[in-house]
Write a structure and sequence with these properties.
The complex is a heterodimer. Chain A is an alpha/beta fold. Helices cover about 30% and strands about 20% of the residues of chain A. Chain A has four helices and five strands; from the N terminus they run E-H-E-H-E-H-E-H-E. Chain A has a five-stranded parallel sheet, with helices on both faces. Chain A is globular and about 40 Å long. By secondary structure, chain B is an alpha/beta fold. Chain B contains ten helices and ten strands. Chain B has an eight-stranded parallel sheet, sandwiched between helices. In chain B, helix 1 (about 25-35) links the parallel strand 1 (about 5) and strand 2. In chain B, helix 4 packs across helix 5. Classes of the chains: A alpha/beta, B alpha/beta. At the A-B interface, helix 3 of A face helix 3 and strand 3 of B.
């Protein structure tokens, strides 16, 4: 199997995205790959509370370190944009991710909810392998 | 000149606590209309709920089914920005229908200017996904109706965010020319100059990304120098405007530096895109500072109706003129290169 050099994971702070981040960090460690942690901030975050995110690079770095990955091999990227498009773009330069990792559902989503599903959209449109990680 | 607006409908149940896309936006818009004191020159087009057939021109049936079921299941957050309630499905259908109703009234009268003061807004709604506060793409539904009648439609989108939904829906539609001027980088992260339309409609998309701080003079340059020649060549029979007002300098959603006088100027410019009367309509998209929203709508409508307007002066001096000029060159280069590629593929 071809080596994987670059992995990208979507992270919105939800329980599911934390599970996805942990899985991605372990995979990056095993493959000795770089890890791009992407947070798409959408429209509302710039308004501040109650819409702003409590996600910080430090929180992400702690999770990555707990999974035994070298934090220096990870990149924290925030984009003002749509989560699906932003993660799909990670498969192109400059990130060139060869594997995309995403939680099964994001903030506030009900189980089985299809509408607005980032994971479903990513699976439908990605041109690289995708791993969808359940929350628990 | 007469102004044709959609009949008001109850949108109060499409609301989420603290969310800036709220019913007060339409009240502000209608406050602007009332402030024009048009008397008998104000025509109200009857409320109308878009039919499934009309929506299917621009949305996938599966998506419509899911959205309806989601709403009638009680609604909730669709994504980090976008919400729906139990009543959102019927309210969104009325918003899509409002555009159709105003267009029909314009057609029957053969004169006037349309203004669709409806929410939720639409230009981010993709063929198969809600996003960016948008559930159904109202302006796309109206444009698709016109295209089905053989019309050629230019959509000018001056909302501060790129209208990715409208661009996606008409990507391969040669009868629609989509022009967007927007802040970049900014949500939704699309709208680059190299996005120029699909294989079946190459050149039918014009994107003018602008840096934070850009002022009205840059917007006018984009309309005159970049969009103008493309519109002339396209020869539209209708002009629809995705009129977001969040490029106003007071708006909390972005960082452009426009005044309400700039919107008056831009409205005047686009009103010359089509020669015949009764073929221009503005659709409310964004705009979240209610005072700026009301003043900017008043400026826009005053400008196209020829009414007196006492508002802010147009702005100038911000960054972006160079990027407009560079973008024009890059767009032409992209157009040439894609045309050559498709011709080579066709000859093989």
């Amino acid at each position: 199997m071809k080596a994987i050099n670059s992995i990208a994971v979507g992270f919105d702070g939800s329980v599911e995205s934390q599970s996805a981040l942990r899985w991605a960090a372990r995979a990056a460690r095993e493959f000795d790959a770089t890890l791009t942690v992407l947070h798409a901030s959408g429209i509302l975050e710039r308004l501040g509370p109650p819409f702003s995110s409590s996600i910080t690079p430090e929180v992400v770095g702690t999770i990555i370190a707990e999974e035994g990955m070298d934090v220096a091999r990870s990149y924290w990227v925030v984009v003002e944009g749509d989560a699906c498009s932003a993660l799909l773009h990670c498969a192109a330069p400059p990130v060139n991710a060869e594997l995309l990792v995403v939680g099964s559902r994001g903030h506030g989503k009900r189980p089985g909810m299809m509408i607005g599903s980032v994971s479903l959209e990513i699976v439908q449109h990605a041109n690289v392998p995708v791993v969808v990680v359940p929350g628990r | 000149m007469v102004l044709i607006v959609n009949e008001a409908y109850d949108d109060s149940e499409h609301e989420s606590p603290d969310h800036p896309e709220r019913p007060g936006r339409v009240r502000a818009a209608m406050g602007a209309v009332e402030g024009l004191h048009l008397g008998s020159d104000l025509i109200v087009a009857p409320a109308y709920s878009a039919t499934r057939a009309e929506l299917l021109r621009v949305h996938d049936g599966g998506y419509l089914d899911e959205l309806g079921a989601f709403c009638y299941g009680g609604g909730g957050d669709i994504d980090q920005d976008t919400y729906a309630t139990f009543d959102s499905w019927s309210i969104a259908n009325l918003a899509a229908g409002a555009g159709l109703s105003v267009i029909r009234e314009l057609e029957s009268r053969g004169e006037g200017v349309g203004f669709v003061a409806a929410r939720p807004p639409g230009h981010h709604a993709l063929r198969d996904r809600a996003m960016g506060f948008c559930l159904l793409n109202n302006i796309a539904v109206a444009a698709a109706q016109l295209v089905s009648q053989g019309e050629r439609v230019v959509i000018v989108d001056w909302d501060v965010h790129h209208g990715n939904g409208t661009q996606q829906i008409f990507w391969d539609e040669p009868a629609v020319l989509y022009i967007s001027m927007h802040q970049s980088p900014l949500f939704p992260g699309s709208g680059f100059v190299g996005e120029i339309g699909g294989r079946l409609a190459l050149g039918s998309v014009v994107n003018v990304p602008l840096p934070a701080g850009a002022t009205g003079d840059v917007m006018r340059r984009a309309l005159d120098d970049v969009a103008g020649p493309v519109v002339d060549a396209f020869r539209p029979t209708w002009v629809l405007v995705s009129a977001g007002f969040d490029a106003h300098r007071l708006d909390p959603m972005a960082d452009l530096g426009l005044s309400d006088g700039d919107f008056a100027d831009m409205a005047s410019c686009v009103s010359h895109y089509v020669a015949e009367p009764g073929r221009l309509a503005f659709f409310l998209e964004g705009g979240y500072h209610l005072g700026a929203l009301q003043a900017s709508i008043a400026a826009t409508l005053s400008s196209v109706l020829g009414s007196p307007f006492e508002g802010e002066r147009p702005t100038s001096g911000g960054p972006g003129a160079e990027s407009v000029a560079t973008g024009k060159v890059q767009r032409l280069a992209a157009l040439e290169s894609w045309t050559r590629l498709f011709e080579e593929e066709a000859s093989q």
